[in-house]
Every structure is written in C-alpha cells, then in structure tokens.
Amino acid sequence: MRHTISIWRTLAAGLAGGIAFVLGTFVTFRLLGGSRLGAEGLLFDPDTQHPKVITVWKELEPLPRILENPLIILGGMLAFGIGYAFVYRSIAPAWTTGLHSRAWRLGLVVWLGTVFAEFMGPFNVLHQPLSVSVLAWAMWAVCAFAEAYALVFVLDRGLSKGREQGERGAAHRSTAAEPLA
After folding, report:
1. Per DSSP, what are the bridge partners of residue 177?
2. How far apart are CA 70 and CA 153, in angstroms?
3. Distance between CA atoms of residues 79 and 147, nearest Å
4. Phi, psi values for residue 39, rounded to 5°
C-alpha cells in the first residue's frame, strides 16, 4: 500500500524547518556574529572584517531589510522552509530512509544555496576575508542542518519501521508525494 503525505503535513514541516532556520540565524548571525546594530561579534570585528562589509551592513542607507523591517525577511525564511519541504517531498523517495541520512542530504542542499549567496555577495562583492567567509559558511551550516532536521522529522514522522535499517522499497516509497494535480 502506498502512503502519501498531505499538503498540510508538508506545510507544517516547512514551517517547522523555517522556524528552525530562523532560530539558527538568531543564534549564529545575530548573537555570535554581531549582525545587529551597535554590535561587533565574530563577523563584524573591525580587526578581521573588511570595512566595506561593515559599512554596507551597518552604516550605508538604506540598511539591510533584516535590520529595517525584519518581519519581511523572517517571513521569507519561513516561505523558503515551505519551499524546501515541497522539494524534499518530491525527492525523498529516491533517498535511503532514516532521519540522519535524509536530514544530512537535505541540509547539504540548503547549505549549498546559502553558501553560494554568501560567496557571491560578501566574499565576492564586498571583499570579505576568506577566514571570515569560512566562519559565515559554518554558521549557515548550523542554520541549514537545523532546518533539515526539523523538516525531515516532521515530514517523515511515523513512517515505516524499515526506515531505521536504511531500507528502500515499501518504506522508501511511503514518502512519495501525493499528486498535486
């Protein structure tokens, strides 16, 4: 018998993943990285960060939207979480089952997107030093894997016991998305 995952469960998983991603960014970039106004932190230390990054992020008007109107960006992060839930739902049947195996794969997909943006923005355009970029990439990994674990946990919760042995087959197909048509 083939099981399907409802749209509502997919949305709930996406929201859970998005919330985990937002919490990850709060802990890493805001608290540790110093992205808030008036803070230095690991990413905004004038001794290690390129002045151009600090100027663009904290001084040059208009300031980044996350500082001026954070709800727009936080809402976008939740929307991306929902998007990743639909992506995961469509590709999970091809993956070996199991929370860790699937979360690591999805986390890598999410992380690659964030690192590409960081590579093209702060590293390329703003001349952020490589050492600070690597630190930022590690912070993005925390966010990406938090999102992936939350999303996979909610979406795959309660599926076949064969998942724990890394089986494919019926347990493998049980995560197949229901047709959207």
Report:
1. 5
2. 27
3. 12
4. -110, 150
Q: Are the CB atoms for 103 and 85 separated by under 8 Å?
A: no
C-beta of residue 135 within 8 angstroms of C-beta of residue 43: yes
Q: How many angstroms separate the CA atoms of 7 and 21, rounded?
A: 21
User: What Rg do the C-alpha atoms of the chain give, in angstroms?
Assistant: 19
Does residue 1 have a pLDDT over 60?
A: no
Is 75:164 a contact under the CB 8 Å cutoff?
A: no
Angle in degrees, CA 67, 111, 178, rounded to 5:
105
Structure tokens at 181: 């048509």
Task: Give 106's contacts (C-beta < 8 A, 6+ positions apart).
Answer: 84, 88, 148, 151, 152
In angstroms, rounded to a whole number, what is the distance separating the alpha carbons of residues 135 and 115?
11
pTM: 0.85
Whether the CB-CB separation of 128 and 166 falls below 8 Å is answered with no
The rounded Cα 174 to chain-centroid distance in angstroms is 25
Q: Render pLDDT for 109-121 as a digit per residue (tens, 0 to 9).
A: 999 999 999 999 9
Q: pLDDT digits over 123-180, tens only?
A: 999 999 999 999 999 999 999 999 999 999 999 986 644 444 554 544 444 444 544 4
Whether 109 and 154 have beta carbons less than 8 Å apart is answered as no
